[in-house]
Specification:
CATH architecture of the largest domain: 3 Solenoid
CATH class of the largest domain: Mainly Beta
Largest sheet: 11 strands, parallel
Helix content: under 10%
Strand content: 35-45%
Shape: elongated
Number of domains: 2
Number of helices: 2
CATH superfamily of the largest domain: Single-stranded right-handed beta-helix, Pectin lyase-like
Length: 478
């Protein structure tokens, strides 16, 4: 489900320029004095291009697309084009409100939206910076900062929305309600890719009765006097893939994540330095897999070692060469690019977190791979273990353990007995060991999930693991 949604987002993003090229281009302020005037004059398929500068006052705040299928874009990106929503004293202001059934043909791209101030009438009229009310636009490359709401969603608020949000920064917004200071969703299935949610007060991200997807995002240094500083989830089923969740602080529980009747799924994520804890459940249960969690957390492929960020104090969460998160994720949720737009899978497998290390890991590690995590009758199946020896000398007569975990019963390759291993000398570089030769998966063998391969290399005495243990889960069905 989440991979399908993410693929759709990529198709939409690739089509933005071709769609915009069909119409005219209107220029603000050379042709139209305000942003709203440019929108008002535009027709479906047009592009409204906004020149560099800071735009404020009437016509440059409280902006609406009016249901038009247009692209509103800055000339040179959000750092050069600022929409200052500072209101008249005693009044409300917002940046953009999409409330006329806008869809993916309505595109907002390349603005900083700041200083919006909104006192809400009820929960469904929240938000300040960007509000999507029963509308689903595409929002790209925007910065939403320093906005205020007396309730939730000071940065962004979504109600009954399937919007897509890509490469946006949600920064230093404040919600007095203690939840969703950065972003709040109600009954919405929004897709967020390559976004940064940082330094918001009242929490970073709230989802109520929503099933959002978040990929390659950073959720950092958000705070709340209540619960769920990073994520506050209420009857929600989000899918979170390759995200870095660091330094969030809740006064009560769930520095990173708090669940109330919620069942989030986390793949390839890093939870680190969150206070007072990482994942806290009132009701419901997070499913965490192939992730790095400070102090550990139950789940396939999870680790607990220091991720060794480049500069955690400076909020640089790139992985250094010796990080245990390198190659420790799963390709069950395949991504081509990381937060920086650089290629994924630079080693034997994807890294955990939003950033893919672009160098080989600085230590020896193993990987074990099959053609698919889900096997069907007639599929061609094999299994190969890889050893990446990063030392300058050979690993003489080391023991490679490949273990099949079949619902708790352990079988050791190559004989698949109760105890066995490969003894081999591994030269510098990458070596491969065939665990299972190619064969066609037979019909009539039923179905099973949660089968796991473990792979690790040990010294000749089998007293010390060299590098990291790799994990691969799979199953089969009729």
């Amino acid at each position: 489900m989440c991979i399908k949604k993410f693929s759709i987002v990529c198709l939409l993003m690739s089509g933005i320029l071709s769609t915009a090229a069909l119409g005219a281009t209107l220029h603000v302020p050379s042709e139209y004095p305000t942003i709203q005037a440019g929108i008002n004059a535009a027709s479906d398929g047009d592009t409204v291009m906004v020149s560099d500068g800071t735009y404020s006052g009437d016509g440059n705040r409280n902006l609406r697309f009016l249901g038009k299928k247009i692209t509103l874009v800055s000339a040179n990106g959000p750092e050069s084009c600022v929409i200052d929503c500072t209101p008249v004293p005693g009044s409300n202001s917002f940046g953009f409100r999409f409330d006329n059934s806008e869809d993916q043909n309505s595109v907002l791209s390349g603005f900083t939206i700041c200083n919006a101030y909104y006192l809400s009438e009820n929960f469904w009229t929240n938000g300040a910076g960007i509000i999507c009310d029963q509308s689903s636009p595409v929002i790209v490359n925007c910065i939403v900062r320093d906005c205020f709401s007396d309730d939730v969603g000071a940065g962004m608020f979504f109600y009954l929305s399937r919007a897509t949000v890509n490469r946006c920064t949600i920064l230093n917004n404040l919600s007095e309600a203690a939840n969703g200071g950065g972003i709040s969703l109600a009954r919405s299935d929004v897709v967020f890719t390559n976004c940064r949610i940082h330094g918001n007060t009242g929490g970073g991200f709230q989802a109520v009765e929503s099933d959002p997807t978040m990929v390659n995002c950073i959720v950092s240094e958000n705070s709340t006097y209540h619960v769920g500083a990073g994520f506050n989830l209420i009857n929600a089923y989000p899918t979170i893939i390759n995200c870095t969740i660091v330094g969030n602080d809740a006064d009560l529980h769930g520095g990173a994540v708090y669940c109330a009747a919620s069942y989030p799924l986390f793949y390839n994520c890093i939870f680190w330095d969150n206070s007072p804890d990482d994942l806290k459940t009132g009701t419901g249960q997070p499913s965490v897999r192939y992730s790095c969690v400070n102090g550990g957390y139950p789940g396939i492929g999870n680790i607990s070692g220091d991720p060794l960020f480049s500069d955690i104090a400076g909020t640089d969460f790139h992985l250094t060469q010796y990080s245990p998160c390198i190659d420790a994720g799963t390709d069950r949720t395949p991504l081509d690019k990381d937060y920086d737009g650089l290629p994924r899978n630079q080693g034997g497998c994807v890294d955990m977190g939003a950033f893919e290390n672009q160098e080989w890991a600085g230590y020896t590690r193993t990987n074990i791979m099959m053609p698919s995590h889900t096997i069907l009758p007639g599929d061609t199946v094999n299994c190969i273990a890889y050893v990446n020896n990063q030392s300058s000398s050979e690993l003489a007569k080391h023991h490679l353990f490949v273990i099949l975990d079949l619902n708790g019963a352990l079988f050791f390759a190559p004989s698949f007995s109760q105890y066995d291993h490969y003894t081999q000398t591994f030269l510098p570089g990458i070596s491969d060991v065939t665990v299972l030769d190619e064969f066609k998966w037979p019909a009539g063998v039923g179905a099973m999930n949660g089968v796991i391969w473990y792979c690790a290399i040990l010294n000749p005495d089998s007293t010390r693991i060299v590098g990291e243990i790799s994990v691969y889960d799979f199953g089969w069905t009729e």
